[in-house]
UniProtKB/TrEMBL annotation:
Domain DYW residues, every copy: 648-744
InterPro entries linked to this entry: DYW_dom, E_motif, PPR_At4g14850-like_plant, PPR_rpt, TPR-like_helical_dom_sf
Family recorded in the similarity comment: Belongs to the PPR family. PCMP-H subfamily.
Tagged with keyword Chaperone: no
This protein's UniProt keywords: Repeat
GO molecular function: RNA binding; zinc ion binding
Record GO biological process: RNA modification
Gene3D superfamilies to which the protein is assigned, alphabetical: Tetratricopeptide repeat domain (1.25.40.10)
PPR repeat ranges, renumbered to this chain: 130-165, 436-466, 468-503
Record protein name field: DYW domain-containing protein
The keyword Repeat belongs to this UniProt entry's keyword annotation: yes
């Protein structure tokens, strides 16, 4: 699909006035034009350089000038300008097509811009190739995440024997290959004598780190005779990927003591290593985080939005007081749009309400939101119960002239979907003129989240871009939510066979979930055994959920054991195992699990639900504790429960605590947070958005079987659509039926 901006950019090139430059070139040599083009390009004025070129005499056009312009198009990612220049060259200088130097630049440009099919066609048509030709294409496939093709092409270069790969060829192919291919390349590196190359060794460290082989990366790092800044950065990033934050911090401290300067990449890895890593003491982490912040202020890197955002995120996740957080922000001398955006970014996911408050404050301060600010605020909007905030930001995006920006359209697709409005997501997607890969993936993910797997599978063949790993996570998740087992298996098998994409942990987790939910637990277990990498907590959680659904006790014990090792503070394993025992009537074992959980100091995440009434969000805990209208809500709920019992509602008490009376078990279930939220919505029907025909509830954990049955019957009895967003997906309840078809 051609972007609507393409024609505009051509017009801008043609309309640029170069009258002040052309007289100076009259009667001069091709080198004069070349030098002027180089000067403009070095200033970032590529459009002006192209305009000057098109308006000059063809006699001044040299191979070097074409090569320079193709190089600049590649550097800036200007595919459309590069295409036009290529067509112009074919029309006015056809002999260029046989020139090795120019063709290499063309291959590089198309590769860098992701136009790999055409780059490969040019490559295949070359009568003679050199190492630059091969490396440009190898690098192009690697940068597009197509590691299999990159490795295959690199192998073909070796097989032909005419070209010996240089260090750039090795670093390119290593950047996208898996562990097994990487080990082979490592052996070849040693064989051809490039083991001492700092660039190649740094790429090997990164490859081992991405493959979760951080011990091998560390061994390689220690073997270096000289550590460059990139070497240190690669090792810090490696420990960060492996969630070994203390190791990453240790390497950074040593780097600083050695007097090695750090850069933006160093700081991003260091701050990221403080988030979600194992074994970091909170107080020590906060202290270190602040020290690195001071260094980034001193060196000026804190003025870059990515660095400021990484700091804010780390500080927030380590438990830094938000008020202190805000004071830090106010004390900063440069409170520009970058810093405001950084603050909003840090709060967008953990506290959308505060993020939105800061956005409004930003407007009061007279600052103008930029494209990045809008994209982050829309990310915060995705955390609200209804789409009202997203609609408000959407209108501001249009007023600001950013309506056609693909990045913001993608953010809107995501925000509307997360707020429960798949119709608005679809509308934005269909109106997007220039869709990129994120656009397609966002829409596929939206369909999956709402249980619309058929729509996702119908959309997939319409993609006019090559899918990536995220595309297949979205498709497999959609199949998982809808019980489409055979379709999921077919898609999983097609990843490598048809698209050259090697399945990663997320894809295996989806497949374990697909097979397990369908009762094919033996196949799910076998798939885990055949995985080429170590299963992570997501894979074991998927298997455990399947064991819970189908009462598979023995395999559940294995999954729980693995989860305890990987995430000792996570309550999921304990809770699921206790539920499995309770469902099977083995209450003593369930009690033992709960005691073990208490003894380990692990706490279950409390069930919370939120509903928006008027312009205020109301939070409900189980039992309605702390809500000022608790008594009225409970009275109304008791009445609704009685009415639903008359039409078939039977409380599902099998998972309630076994050592209390059945009457109390029912009372425990009746006061679950989503039921309280539903009744409060009915009590305030006139204040709901949309006139009260649709009730939207957000929940932080998975909806239980009893509440799911309750919502189905309530939707028919109340004659309303009830949309519940739990931790996994959306449930649309209408006329006694749920969109998940009881498959969740």
């Amino acid at each position: 699909m051609r972007c609507p901006t393409t024609r505009a950019c051509f017009v801008s090139i043609r309309s640029f006035s170069s009258s002040n430059l052309l007289p100076a070139l009259a009667g001069h040599e091709p080198n004069d034009l070349l030098n002027e083009v180089r000067l403009l390009s070095s200033r970032g004025q590529l459009h002006q350089a192209l305009s000057l070129f098109y308006n000059s005499s063809p006699q001044l056009h040299s191979l070097q000038t074409y090569a320079t312009l193709f190089h600049e198009c590649a550097r800036h990612g200007y595919l459309q300008q590069g295409l036009r220049l290529h067509h112009f060259m074919l029309a006015h200088f056809p002999s260029c097509t046989s020139d090795l130097f120019v063709t290499n630049h063309l291959i590089n440009m198309y590769s860098k811009c992701g136009y790999l099919q055409y780059a490969h066609q040019l490559f295949d048509a070359m009568p003679k190739r050199n190492v630059v030709s091969w490396t440009a294409l190898v690098s192009g496939y690697a940068q597009c995440g197509r590691g299999v093709e990159s490795f295959r092409l690199f192998s073909n270069m070796l097989a032909e024997g005419d070209c010996r790969p240089n260090d750039f060829a090795f670093t390119s192919v290593l950047s996208s290959c898996d562990y097994l291919c990487g080990k082979q390349l490592h052996a070849l590196v040693l064989k051809v004598g490039l083991g001492a190359s700092v660039y190649v060794t740094n790429s090997l460290i990164t490859m081992y780190s991405k493959s979760y082989k951080v011990e091998e990366a560390w061994t390689l790092f220690k073997s270096l005779s000289y550590w460059s800044q990139v070497s240190w950065n690669s090792m810090i990033a490696g420990f960060q990927i492996a969630k070994l934050g203390m190791h990453a911090i240790g390497v950074f401290v040593k780097m600083h003591h050695e007097g090695i300067g750090f850069n933006r990449a160093t700081l991003l890895s260091v701050f990221s290593s403080l988030c979600g890593s194992h074994g970091i003491d909170i107080n020590l982490g906060l202290k270190f985080c602040f020290q690195v912040y001071c260094l980034s202020v001193k060196t000026g890197f804190i003025s870059e939005v990515e660095v400021a955002t990484a700091f804010m995120k780390a500080y927030s996740e380590l438990g830094g007081d938000v008020s202190e957080f805000y004071h830090l922000f106010l004390e900063t001398s440069c409170q520009d749009i970058i810093f405001w955006t950084s603050m909003i970014t840090a709060l967008a996911e953990p506290d959308p309400a505060k993020a939105f408050f800061l956005y409004r404050q930003l407007l009061r301060e007279g600052l103008t939101p930029d494209l990045y600010t809008f994209s982050i605020v829309l990310k915060a909007c995705a955390g609200f119960v209804t789409e009202q905030h997203a609609l408000a930001i959407h209108s501001q995006v249009i007023k600001s002239g950013f309506e056609d920006e693909t990045v913001l359209r993608n953010a809107l697709i995501h925000a509307y979907a997360r707020c429960g409005s798949i119709a608005l997501s679809k509308k934005v997607f269909e109106e997007t003129g220039c869709r990129d890969l994120v656009s397609w993936n966002s829409m596929l993910k939206a369909y999956g989240l709402h249980g619309k797997a058929k729509e996702a599978l119908q959309l997939f063949p319409q993609m006019d871009l090559k899918p990536d790993t995220a595309t297949f996570v979205a498709l497999l998740s959609a199949c998982s939510h809808s019980g489409m087992v055979e379709e999921g298996l077919r898609i999983f098998d097609s990843m490598f066979k048809n698209h050259g994409i090697i399945p990663q942990l997320d894809h295996y987790a989806c497949m374990v979930d697909i097979l397990g939910r369908a009762g094919r637990i033996v196949e799910a277990e076998e798939l885990i055994r055949r995985m080429p990498m170590e299963p992570d907590s997501v894979v074991w959680s998927a298997l455990l959920g399947s064991c819970r659904k189908h009462g598979e006790t023995q395999l559940a014990k294995t999954a729980v054991s693995k989860l305890k090792q990987m995430e000792p503070e996570n309550s999921l394993g304990y809770v699921q195992m206790s539920n499995i025992y309770s469902s099977g009537g083995r209450f003593n074992e369930a009690g033992t699990i709960r005691k073990e959980m208490d003894g380990s100091g692990v706490r279950k995440e409390p069930g919370l639900s939120w509903i928006e009434v008027g312009n205020q969000v109301h939070e409900f805990a189980s039992g309605g504790r702390h809500h000022p209208q608790r008594e009225a809500i409970c009275t109304k709920l008791q009445g609704l429960i009685g009415q639903l019992k008359e039409i078939g509602y039977v409380p599902e008490i099998s998972l309630a605590l076994h050592d209390i009376e059945e009457e109390h078990k029912q009372e425990q279930l009746f006061h679950h947070s989503e039921k309280m939220a539903l009744v409060f919505a009915v009590m305030n029907e006139g204040k709901l958005h949309g006139g009260g025909n649709v009730i939207r509830i957000m929940k932080n954990i998975r909806i239980c079987v009893d509440c799911h049955n309750f919502m189905k019957l309530a939707s028919g009895f109340l004659q309303k659509e009830i949309i519940v967003r739990d931790s996994n997906r959306f449930h649309h309840f209408k006329d006694n039926i749920c969109s998940c078809n009881d498959y969740w």
